TrEMBL record:
Organism: Massilia eurypsychrophila
InterPro entries in UniProt: aa-tRNA-synth_I_CS, aa-tRNA-synth_Ic, Rossmann-like_a/b/a_fold, S4_RNA-bd, S4_RNA-bd_sf, Tyr-tRNA-ligase, Tyr-tRNA-ligase_bac-type, Tyr-tRNA-ligase_bac_2
Function field: Catalyzes the attachment of tyrosine to tRNA(Tyr) in a two-step reaction: tyrosine is first activated by ATP to form Tyr-AMP and then transferred to the acceptor end of tRNA(Tyr).
Main location: cytoplasm
Enzyme class: ligase
Domain (RNA-binding S4) ranges: 359-420
Gene designation per UniProt: tyrS
GO cellular component: cytosol
Compartments where located: Cytoplasm
Protein name: Tyrosine--tRNA ligase
Catalytic activity: tRNA(Tyr) + L-tyrosine + ATP = L-tyrosyl-tRNA(Tyr) + AMP + diphosphate + H(+)
């Protein structure tokens, strides 16, 4: 059992004596730190955990998400998984929907002004956000809040007063603002309001800990400073890594088409997870799996000693599919994947009715939505990536007569086409 040095409160006066860090607190701290990029300030958070254990009062853990799109992907769940771990430790998690801040637009990582969303877009997206987040969080123990609750009543007078609490010099310490200013790229005044309003959320909620991706660090620190200015105990901040997408390079994003949506069919999720590299697999294990670190280390050791990494990847894919669907869906997805790998046809093939027979194969692949263009279709034929009823086709000039057949492009694109004259 260890102890921490005395801290100071938000006003700078000596705080109460440091509490001892019990085995339970140290275990909770270890769980909190698993897979994180940074925990600031760790000693402060350890004391918050110790006080929570001593008083029986749970910590208030905040995560804010702007409903900029209606669907969540596995990249979003990295921070949601951490929220669930903290929830399982008995703390109060707050799922904050940024319906007000969405109208400003988060400038994080942007080199241009982000277009703000309309109220209608925000409400439409927010409808599905918590439903999807509840696939990870325990909805019955989650506090749902909207930051318009306290942001709308501020009004012009309150916004001016809030703005007086932070300097332009501090705001320009933000990396993306600095780069845009130096390059002559416009920065709208309203963009300065975003980190201020996100910080004010922490004041309104009296947050003990705020979570976010590494790209949110500046915004999280603003909340910490504003709490101090308002005489509150400062929140600690926890940043999680940004999960790379299926390409293993760029962060997971729908716009980059390297994502796995959490509401995608189980078979699709499974196949996408099996497509990641053997190296990237361990990154996914660390950030997405609920297995213990000891279990993951044992798997890694087994692979190093000769176990087929495919078997470890199957275990990961089944765990993820089971989490968002069911155990049966995970079993079915594995069977479907094995069937596809042997050249078989999956059960859930989209069915289309097209006309115009006879029609050239490249044109038909485009019409079926399996290729974006006829030139891409011809390229896939050249690469041996096109099958009809399981048979590889090498003739780009092939014309198909009326009938029903299964078209396949690559490993995962299928369509059962009924072609008429």
């Amino acid at each position: 059992m260890t102890t921490s040095s005395p801290s100071k409160n938000a006003a700078g006066a000596p705080a109460s004596p440091a509490l001892p860090l019990t085995d339970n607190v140290l275990e909770a701290l270890a769980i909190t730190k698993r897979g994180v990029d940074e925990l600031l300030i760790e000693a402060e958070f350890a004391q918050k955990l110790a006080r929570s254990e001593h008083s029986g009062k749970p910590l208030r853990i905040k995560l804010g998400l702007d409903p900029t799109a209606p669907d969540l992907h596995l990249g979003h769940t990295v921070v949601l998984n951490k929220m669930r771990q903290l929830q399982n430790l008995g703390h109060q998690v707050i799922f904050l929907i940024g319906d007000f801040t969405s109208m400003i637009g988060d400038p994080s990582g942007r080199n241009i002004t982000r277009p703000p969303l309309t109220r209608e877009q925000i409400e439409l997206n927010a409808m599905t956000y918590f439903k999807q987040a509840s696939l990870v969080l325990d909805a019955s123990r989650t506090e749902i809040r909207y930051n318009s609750e306290w942001s709308d009543p501020l009004g012009a007078r309150g916004m001016i007063e809030l703005s007086s609490r932070y300097t332009v010099a501090r705001m320009m310490e933000r990396d993306d603002f600095t780069k845009r200013f130096k390059s002559g790229t416009p920065i709208s005044v309203h963009e300065f309001l975003y980190p201020l309003m996100q910080g004010y959320d922490s004041v309104a909620l009296k947050a003990d800990l705020e979570l976010g991706g590494t790209d949110q660090k500046f915004n999280l620190l603003v909340g910490r400073e504003l709490q101090k200015d308002y005489g509150q105990e400062q929140q600690c901040i926890l940043t999680m890594p940004l999960l790379e997408g299926l390409d293993g390079i760029e962060k997971m994003s729908k716009s980059k088409n390297n994502y796995i949506g959490i509401t995608e069919p189980g078979n699709t999720m499974f196949a996408k997870l099996m497509s990641i590299s053997d190296v990237m697999m361990w990154r996914y294990f660390e950030l997405l799996s609920f297995r213990s670190l000891a279990d993951i280390a044992a798997l890694k050791k087994a692979v190093a000693e000769g176990m087929n990494p495919r078997d470890a990847k199957v275990a990961l894919a089944q765990e993820i599919v089971e989490r968002f669907h069911s155990a049966q869906a995970a079993t079915d997805a594995l069977a479907d994947f094995v069937n596809r790998s042997k050249g078989g046809i999956p059960d859930d093939v989209a069915e289309l009715a097209l006309s115009g027979a006879p029609v050239g194969l490249p044109q038909l692949l485009k019409q079926a939505g399996l290729c974006a263009s006829t030139s891409e279709a011809m390229r896939m034929v050249d690469q041996g990536g096109v099958r009809i009823d399981g048979v590889v086709i090498a003739d780009k000039a092939l014309k198909l007569d009326a009938g029903t057949f299964v078209l396949q492009v690559g490993k995962r694109k299928f369509a059962r086409v009924t072609l008429s004259a």
